[in-house]
Amino acid sequence: MFGKLISYEKHNYSIKLNYEKKPIFVDVISDKAVRFYEERESKSFAVEAYELSSDFSIKFDTKLVIETKEIKIVISDEFKVIIYDLMGNEILSDCDLKASKDDQNVDSDLLALEGHKSHDGEEYKFLITKKLHNDECFFGLGDKTGFLNKREYEYIMWNTDDPAPQVDCFKSLYKSIPFFIGHHDKISYGVFLDNTYKSVFNMGTEDDVFYFGSVGGTIDYYFFYGPQMKDVMTEYTNITGRYPLPQIWTLGNQQSRWSYANKEAVDEIVDGYQKNNIPLDVIHLDIDYMEDYKVFTHSEEKFPDMKNYIATLAEKGIKVVCIIDPGVKALEGYNVYDEGIKNNYFATLDGEVYHNAVWPGDSVFPAFTSNRVQSWWANNTKYLTELGVRGIWNDMNEPASFKGPLPNDVVFSSEDKDYLHEEVHNVYGHLMAKATYEGLAKTNKRPYIITRACYAGSQKYTTAWTGDNHSIWAHLQMAPVQLCNLGLSGMPFVGTDVGGFGSHCTKELMARWVMVGAFSPLFRNHSAMGTKYQEPWQFDQELTDIYRKYVELRYQLIPYYYDLFRLHEQTGYPVMRPVVFNYENDEVTYNLNDEFMVGDNILVSPVVVQGERKKLVYLPNDKWYSHETKELVEAGYSIASAKLDECPIYVKGGSIIPKYEKSMHIANNIDKLILDVYPGDGEYTHYVDDKETFSYQQGEYSLYFFKKVNEELTIELIKDDYKKLYKEFEIHYQNKIIKAKASNKLTIKL
Ligand code: GLC
After folding, report:
1. pLDDT tens across 222-252, in order?
2. Percent of the chain clearing pLDDT 90 (strictly above)
3. CA–CA distance, 433 with 411 (Å, rounded to integer)
4. pLDDT tens digit sequence for 697-745
5. Does ligand 1 come within 6 angstroms of the Cβ of 248?
6. Distance from Cα 697 to the centre of ligand 1, integer Å
7. CB-ligand 1 contact for 476 (6 Å cutoff)
8. Candidates 468, 497, 563, 646; catalytic one
9. Could you give the CA distance from residue 59 to residue 15 in angstroms, rounded to a whole number?
10. Residue 161: CB partners within 8 Å, gap ≥ 6?
């Protein structure tokens, strides 16, 4: 494909390798991040800009050797790349793809008789094949089915709306994030293939290699060196961006259903939460709030005087989020359609506006590839924000279509290029989220968007949920790993439909799901039309009490979550993480599917199997305390009690966890901060701002530094540019409660 390496040139620190057949470019971005690419046919949708490093050396004879302060890259004929750390450990190396054994002796016609497929049948334009190390594990890859470790599985990046119960052999779901973390020999690294066409990631189904490649576009991949996973996340999100701090109420409990179709239905839910004393911050309105499923409309019949109604809900502490799909009803006289037609905003096929069907029936699709369309869509969001709607839920943006998939050659035009669907399918949701972000940012509040489809870098604009799961135990088992791998793919604000979307949820499943949901960054209960109603009180009193217990715990932990979002914005670390992210030298964690961590301090080991009342818990080598009893628990395997209302939760020794008092809604200003302190020495930085606007980006925030040494805790205000500070601290330590009036520096004997 490339031939012999003949020479190289350097242009402003970008390196061009002249091969016999075609050139390859190499950009050294940092000591740990390098990009390898062919000249692109179109711009990247994930990466906006980066600076080049100048701090590396180059040697060339028959091979080109680049050395940074952390890695050595050897590139030879046929664009073969080997990357070493400076101790000489081989981290990632190219090798040849052997003929697939799986494809030999296959009678495809016979298989097809019963509807089986032998192969995805794709012709890949390029496949990059790497050596698989004996102990290698893979994490990330966006939103995929199955378990935490992706080794020996194959996935396809092609945003797919398939509501059938998604199981391990599904190769694609709604999102395509072509990024993974590899870990072998105690070294972590990352690879990001920045290619939006349908692509394959085969993580070692064939012996000693793994490979990735795409049906179109060009080779363009980044390598990120660790050696820790934390470093990989920082490097990857330096390139693709991070989730900006959310408004704090978005961390609260959210209730949804397809659909609360009128004001009375919504009132019933809000009352239900109030009567049952369960905290709630958000109600989601699914497609039925619209008039005939026309986006940027509402049904005056179902929601009379909607602006006033939303204001009444706001007084009760409830925010409204509305769904918006990309499919615009093709109907003359409907302003969104008419404007789009007049200005050529919709995708076309053979020069005509392309039609397919979604909820509104005959529908057309905005070409979000165009800046003009982006701005138009952003302006349309005003319809909702002027009604008082506080967030937008973007759905069906794979894009989903009811009359068969969009043909590959549907055209999405832009100012610089006409894109074909095959190139921009995987970024359609990403671009829709970007436009929505632009619209919501005009309110001067931090935008809250939830998307179903996305691509690498979508974290700059949006949160995500995992789409149409089912109320089945297999999907509860999948939930923590799905969310953890999304976190390791750069998306920190993610959640599943708590209780499951399709199928009827049982009481026991709901009890166990809320234990995962209450710790998921995005905490929303949602279910489909025709399934059992899933609000907590629809089961029985016991379940209502269990649900309340975990929602209350979530509300107490809100300041801890908010701090983790702040940490994400600074480092790219996920909020909810697999245990391996914090303990990557512990091999047990590589395949630990039914436990996860929130930040560095809290480990949750939920029950995900029907009937279990004991849980086999694994705690990595550290000091751990039960969150419930505060007792020390030995590291390693142990069996925890897990009655229907119990979820084993552990806190690391030396932790200082900031908590709020129980409350029914999340407030922006709080007078009292609780510090839940655990034996051992430790420190913690706590962040405070207005929790709503962008003024923190101008430095309007305060920082507290907590430090525990022996039996003494110091609380120090180390930055005070946000003025509404705490008035009181309450320290909880080993069954003692110590109250202290706030001041700039406090020392407390525990
Ligand atoms: C899709 C969404 C689901 C939503 C439904 C109706 O199936 O994934 O969450 O409720 O459409 O809008």
Report:
1. 999 999 999 999 999 999 999 999 999 999 9
2. 95
3. 20
4. 999 999 999 999 999 999 999 999 999 999 999 999 998 999 999 999 9
5. no
6. 35
7. no
8. 468
9. 12
10. 174, 396, 398, 400, 452, 467, 468
Ligand 1 in reach of 395 Cβ (< 6 A):
yes
Cα(218) to centroid(ligand 1), Å: 34
Q: Which of 395, 471, 526 to mutate to test the pocket of ligand 1 (most atoms within 8 A of CB)?
A: 395
How many Å apart are CA 502 and CA 526, to the nearest integer?
9
CB 82 within 8 Å of CB 73: yes
SS3 string, 378-414, reads HHHCHHHHCCCCCEEEECCCCCCCCCCCCCCCCEEEC
Strands 524-525 and 254-255, by their bridges, are parallel
Find the distance separating the first CA and the last CA of the chain, reported in whole Å: 68
Query: What does the alpha-carbon distance between residue 352 and residue 406 come to, in Å, rounded to a whole number?
Result: 14
Residue environment code for 687-724, b if the CB has 16+ CB neighbours within 10 A, otherwise e: bbbbbbeeebeeeebbbbebbbeeeebebebeeeebee
User: From atom 5 of ligand 1, which residue's Cα is the shortest distance away?
Assistant: 258
CA distance 643 to 659: 25
Which pLDDT value is given to residue 117?
A: 62
**Span 195-201, mean pLDDT?**
98
Tokens of 626: 């039960």
Rg of the chain over CA atoms, in angstroms?
26
Taken in order 582, 583, 587, 591, is the CA torsion positive or negative?
negative
Strands 71-76 and 64-67: antiparallel
At 103, the pLDDT band (50, 70, 90 cuts) reads low
Given a cut of 80, whether residue 107 has pLDDT beyond it is no
* Mean pLDDT of all residues in 79-91: 98
pLDDT digits over 332-374, tens only?
999 999 999 999 999 999 999 999 999 999 999 999 999 999 9
Q: Is the CB of 602 under 6 A from ligand 1?
A: no
* Active-site pick, 288, 395, 497, 552: 395
CA separation for the pair 612, 607 (Å, rounded): 7
User: What is the pTM assigned to this prediction?
Assistant: 0.97
Nearest to 159 by CA among 401, 444, 327: 401
Mean pLDDT of the chain: 96
Question: Of the residues 194, 235, 325, 398, which is catalytic?
Answer: 398
Measure the CA–CA gap between 689 and 461, rounded to whole angstroms: 20
Distance CA 152, CA 167 (A): 15
pLDDT band at 220 (very low <50, low <70, confident <90, very high): very high
Distances (CA, A) of 207 to 105, 119, 186: 18, 18, 21
Q: Confirm whether 85 is a catalytic residue.
A: no
CA gap 208, 210 in Å, rounded: 7
Any idea which residue has 């026309």 for tokens? 294
Q: Is position 468 annotated as part of the catalytic site?
A: yes
Model pLDDT, residue 104: 57
Q: Tens of pLDDT along 600-645?
A: 999 999 999 999 999 999 999 999 999 999 999 999 999 999 999 9
- For residue 734, how far is its CA from the centre of ligand 1 (angstroms)? 46
At residue 12 the predicted structure's pLDDT band, cuts being 50, 70 and 90, is: confident
Cβ–ligand 1 distance for 452 under 6 Å, the answer yes
Q: Is 15 helix (H, G, I), strand (E, B) or coil?
A: strand
CA distance 450 to 437: 10
Catalytic status, residue 395: yes
Per the structure block, which two tokens stand in for 250? 């978005």
Report d(CA 364, CA 372) in Å as an integer: 17
- The Å distance, Cα 466 to ligand 1 centre, comes to 11
Question: What percent of the chain stands above pLDDT 70?
Answer: 97
Q: What is the pLDDT of residue 122?
A: 78
